[in-house]
Amino acid sequence: MSAPAPQDQLYAAREPVFPRRVKGKFRNLKWVIMLITLGIYYLAPWIRWDRGPELPDQAILVDLAHRRFFFFWIEIWPHEFYFVAGLLIMAGLGLFLFTSAMGRVWCGYTCPQTVWTDLFILVERWVEGDRNARVRLWKSKWDGRKVRLRLTKWAAWVLIALATGGAWVFYFTDAPTLAVDLVTGNAHPIAYTTMLILTATTFFFGGIAREQVCIYACPWPRIQAAMMDEDTLTIGYRDWRGEPRGKLKKAEPGVQQGDCIDCMACVNVCPMGIDIRNGQQMECITCGLCIDACDDVMAKIGKSRGLIDYLALNDEPRERAGAQPRPVWKHIFRPRTILYTALWSIVGFGLVFALFIRPDIEMTVSPIRNPTFITLSDGTIRNVYDVRLRNKHGSQELFGLALDADTNLQLSVEGVDGSLVPVPADSMEIIRVYVQAGPDSAAATADRTDFTFWVTDLSTNERASVDTIFNGKETN
Amino acid sequence: MSKHDDKKEVETTGHSWDGIEEYNNPLPRWWVWVFYATIVWGIGYTIAYPAWPGLRSATAGILGFSTRAQVQEQIDAVDAANAAMVSELENVDLATLADHPELNGFAENMGAAVFRANCVQCHGSGAAGAKGYPNLLDDDWIWGGRIEEIAFTVTNGIRNEQSMDTRGYGGVMPSFDGVLSHEEITNVASYVQLLAGEATDEAAAAEGEELFLNNCASCHGEEGQGSLATTREFEDPEYVTASDEMTGAPRLNDKVWLYGGDLATLEETILNGRGGVMPAWLEDYRPANGLTQAEVNAVAAYVHQLGGGQ
Ligand code: SF4
Ligand code: SF4
Fold it and tell me: How many CB atoms lie within 10 A of CB B8?
């Protein structure tokens, strides 16, 4: 161990980052993605979807009270949670795929933290001006103007944050109803609390914490290092082309100077506050803004673009030697990404397949094994089963229960004459079913008999079955 | 994090893996303050809430927080919410309980809880009983399976000394030791097996018939139909809440046995007699830990539906 660090080394104040405005193709891409993602987020709960009289008319709805998830024509019940698990696996594999192909593109373009931070910085720039003005304001004393600007900015942030927290709760209940309730003060306290918490966290993470979340709180930067290799396209600085850097004007005759004119444009636009010319860094979210900035500079000084660019480490020796880098598709299509794509597709096709083959009626049978059997006066042996009937249709259905014939078992349903059970729309009915074997019949005297429960939806003739066991009287 | 100006070189810790050196960068200041804040929060928390263990109990905390009190509050709230139902249940005419689905459902759930707390020790958690303890799931009832009869049995118990009702108190099965010879006992037991329709020694059973009619039929009925069937069929089919005239003599001509239907068990029963006791459960007879009238009604409703109702 080295000697303890001096006191002033123990911690360091955050150095505020004032990203400068930039124009270019990556910036435009980011604007478009921001528009699409935020648009989806804010508008999705308002899409209507007619599901008939007894079900909610919201296209995307997480109905926690009834434990249903509605997504357009798809309806997920709690026991079908494997769909959600599958989607999470696909999300994970997708992240691996994109990271191994193009580094932290998720972080740079679509991560909510990045998108909202971008939005907050946009507002900040409208209110307080671009980088230089903001730096000046930061350093200036608290006077009327600074207070006014800060309050305006914070007010705008709070509004955005509130809209963010507000949109979230609409996913969990009928949006138009909730909107009215929220305004008239009749909504459930949980709705207000959720909004309050999300407003506060959005304001804090998007407005105050910003890049600190990506660097210190998010685990992905650490994981991504394992997902990337030399073929990964990531943001890099072509130092063999840029160095030795130097101011354009100061170039001395006879000294061979690189393309980098040390204008700091790439550093000033970086939302993470790093200097990409120091090489690949964990903090870089590969947002490409420094590419836009530098390309702009290169255009002005009449050099070709791409001093900073998406590039792969294993192209470096080739480029140093003056050759062209390998084409982009060669970096993207390689065994590793193809494997990820294959796995991703397998899970995806599996889910779609499962979606199409899953039945609209379902049954589970839980034998009651306390006691395993009951002897009735005339020697009949009775077994008891709890049967759950699930009706995923939007209308009440009559379910007919039956046993397969060859076992000579009789079935009766508690509280119901006969074996027809009405099950309300989109719900589950638990019924108690008695199965009896006549005195001295084969099933009554056998240790156990396998048999099958059948259920038929009388209106659609859909059938489902469950295999189970009948316990007879043990004969010693 | 790399500096904008790289003038200030950060020292390394001296650690190195695979040529990668570890910088000794200072922590972010806010991070350190959050760390301190968690410490302050932790100290405050242990003062506000019960935390530090002592020999017998823990510090109480200045907020007066107690999980037990919270649970009690929740129990009280549930009790308060159920109070109306419970008082309705207390006064309900059990014969008409089935006409009130909501009250009936409440009674069955409440009865299930009462059963699990009080009855499972003898009748088993699944109510299947055990040797000498009746199975409550079948269709054979010694003291009547109508809901009022069940409530009556729970209220007064069987052959117990606490309740004022002495139903069945004299109705113990006597010992035939010395009354019948060993061979005669075997013959009667065989005849009882014959009555129940089980395989037996036909010759012995034929010998036992006369003995059965002379010694057993007065309680168990000439066909072994049991005292319940006798009272119901020969007196008043609608008659309910049987009391003293019932002796609780089980039906013998069926497949359900209280103590067992094999020859050895039947011989033992005849030789030594039987007299199972069930305590009275109404709190009037059981001041310390009896059931309220509402609880008796509830557990009667629960037991009544166990076998599908009678
Ligand atoms: S270095 Fe460039 S790509 Fe990386 S975060 Fe900064 S601006 Fe974005
Ligand atoms: S923007 Fe380009 S030219 Fe300017 S400092 Fe960065 S790399 Fe050098």
Answer: 6
